[in-house]
Design brief:
217 residues; alpha/beta; seven-stranded mixed β-sheet; two-stranded antiparallel ribbon; 27% helix; methyltransferase; transferase
Length: 217
């Protein structure tokens, strides 16, 4: 008896079913995950595993996040197509590509120049023309493009970064992992209000740390 052929489409369908089961209910987010080719953003040895619900290594000691975490963080942003979004930590570029399907404009910055250049190549190849990139220190944000309707941070800060809160519009939402790498980190949803912030804990997570400065090579 022949083994059933596992197609790319069936892998995507299985992943979406898993995400729905795990609480991802925003159909626009699920549609974006189905449309963006994750295999374009993973390292060559892991292409066959691109549609598994796991984090995978990329260069510079970084990872491409688990699809569930990407979906959860994106869903928590409550995006629409009028919004201007800042991403801190471009990494592979996968999260920015998802955001570009849902928001009007995405500004993404990365401290590792080689990672950023690779991500830019993928954005061009996929025709994602609403993404602007910057090689810079994520902890400083992108001041001359602020304020942002939404901010997503893909590296763990020690606390909610006040510099990034300042770059968030009133009524805006930031999703950020907070905590020491050696201890439990928490994914937080931060709502900026006229008088300060309201913080909601989403779930325990594990991210690489947010580091100061930039790297050229």
């Amino acid at each position: 008896m022949n083994e059933p052929v596992i197609t790319r489409e069936s892998k995507i369908a299985d992943l979406l079913q898993t995400l729905r089961h795990d609480g991802i209910h925003d159909e626009a987010v699920l549609r974006a995950l189905a449309e963006v080719p994750r295999e374009s953003f993973v390292a060559e040895p892991f292409v066959d595993r691109a549609w598994e619900n796991v984090a995978l290594p990329i260069s510079k000691g970084q990872t491409i996040s688990q699809p569930y975490i990407v979906a959860l963080m994106t869903q928590a942003l409550e995006l629409n197509d009028r919004m201007k979004v800042l991403e801190v930590g471009t990494g592979s570029g996968y999260q920015a590509a998802i955001l570009a399907k849902l928001a009007r404009r995405v500004y993404t910055l990365e401290r590792h120049k080689p990672l950023l250049r690779q991500a830019e190549e993928q954005f061009r190849a996929l025709g994602l023309h609403t993404i602007s990139t910057l090689h810079g220190d994520g902890g400083l944000g992108w001041k001359n493009q602020a304020p942002f309707d939404r901010i997503i941070v893909t590296a763990a800060a020690q606390d909610v970064p006040p510099v990034l809160v300042d770059q968030l519009a009133v009524g805006g939402i930031m999703v950020v992992p907070v905590g020491e790498v050696s201890h439990t980190q928490l994914l937080l949803r931060v709502l900026r209000t006229p008088s300060g912030v309201e913080v909601t804990e989403l779930m325990p997570v594990r991210f690489v740390p947010m580091l100061p400065g930039t790297e050229e090579f």
